[in-house]
Design brief:
Oligomer: single chain
Largest sheet: 6 strands, antiparallel
Order of helices and strands: HEEEEHEEHH
Strand order of the largest sheet: 1-2-3-4-6-5
Radius of gyration: 16 Å
Distance between the termini: 35 Å
Number of domains: 1
Number of helices: 4
Shape: elongated
CATH architecture: 2-Layer Sandwich
Helix content: 25-40%
Length: 164
């Protein structure tokens, strides 16, 4: 399981970072559930290329918000070096967010995050973080799958996605 399930408790008043995240998700009509006792919301997402789980986490003390898209399959051990190569190529040039893979179990996720210390998180910022996240996972998912389960090389898979 991912190591990001720590941190402070959500504010019961609906304020703070989690309050802004909840406001956006409710206004945008997302279906989600809170993980009991954690400042984390879980939701599913279906894009054009597949489905996966998403997690919205607030870290109130650190004034941070993190959003993850996590694939429901883990990359087999023998394919992890190739997928790591693919993800490194995908990350190059990304402005917002990045792909990560746990080399121990093969979990692949896309992360967007923001530190708002000294500032104020807005629903517009949350919207950008969430939609950039799910759109990048959806864009690169065919490449992850073709490298993991097909015969595509990381370079060829990136070229196909990015039109290079």
């Amino acid at each position: 399981m991912s190591p990001f399930f720590g941190g402070s408790q959500p504010q019961s008043s609906g304020g703070g970072i989690m309050g802004v995240v909840l406001k956006f998700l409710q206004e945008d009509k997302w279906n989600f559930q809170q993980i009991e006792g954690k400042p984390i919301l879980r939701m599913g997402f279906t894009g054009n290329n597949g489905s996966w789980q998403c997690f919205a986490q607030s870290r109130e003390e650190q004034q941070q918000f993190i959003f993850y898209s996590i694939l429901q399959m883990n990359v087999p051990a023998d394919k992890r070096p190739l997928v790591a190569d693919f993800l490194t190529r995908a990350n190059y040039g990304l402005i917002l967010g990045n792909f990560e893979m746990d080399m121990n179990d093969g979990e692949v996720r896309f992360k967007t995050s923001i530190d708002v210390q000294g500032g104020q998180l807005t629903t517009g910022m949350v919207k950008t973080m969430i939609y950039v996240n799910v759109l990048m996972m959806d864009k690169y998912l065919p490449g992850i799958m073709s490298v993991t389960y097909g015969a595509a090389t990381p370079a060829d898979a990136i070229a196909k996605i990015e039109g290079k």
